[in-house]
Amino acid sequence: MSQVPAARRALAVLRLLAGAPGPLPASAIARALELPRSSTYHLLTAMAEDGFVTYIPEEGRWGLGVAAFETGSAYLRHEPLERLARPLLRRLVDRVGETAQLGILHGAETLYLLKEQPPRHATLVTDVGVRMPAQLTASGRSMLAHLPPAQVRALFPGRFVDRTGLGPASLRDLRRVLSDDARRGWSMEDGHITEGFASIAACAFDHTGHPTAAITVTFRRDDHEEGTWPTIADQVRTTAASLTTRLTGRPPVT
Fold this sequence. Notes:
- By secondary structure, the protein is α+β, with helices and mostly antiparallel strands.
- The protein has helices at residues 4-19, 26-33, 37-49, 66-78, 80-96, 138-144, 149-155, 171-184, 229-246; strands at 53-56, 61-64, 99-106, 109-116, 131-133, 187-190, 197-205, 211-220.
- Strand 6 and strand 7 (197-205) form a beta hairpin.
- Helix 2 packs across helix 3 and helix 5 (80-96) runs antiparallel to helix 9.
């Protein structure tokens, strides 16, 4: 247990370097983490010996090392997000009897990673590996609703695309929709992707409260009266909250 504080400091260094736009000087690392400068140098030296950070002498800065890259690559190989979400999606499908999907933000698009379907299901245009404009999808908007306004603005600098003539047509429209979604705790789209179909989504969060993925249920709108949609949303939100717990995440502080 005596090594726990040192381990936490090493993890804090990795998170700081991973989130920085480039390598940092040791003084900036010490200041950001509120560590003594001498302790910071000792910590960085130890981490460099194991390859998790590397020193760039020409710049006098520290960056992530090869071991950090290998760890990140192993994370991708193990597909932990999909593995953690799959049983949750299956249970959600059993409860609502409709198709459930897992999506993440990929720039200004929603990228679908998983799909679970009931025995009898409608064919959807969204599938694993498919990308859709994030501002049109319920899953995309559920994640965008929890991003800083400046980041949303950077993702949508120009003309908005549409598929069916519906959905936000400008940044102002999108901000209004995202504000409503954030307040409600879930997002929906009705015919924005495919006419006659609707989707309801809720967001899962990582340990910093950042949106990391979205759980979505999609259905023929004629199969469910609009008055029942909040009930479906409750099931989706419960599933997203379970994924947040599995990711050792936490909802953002509002």
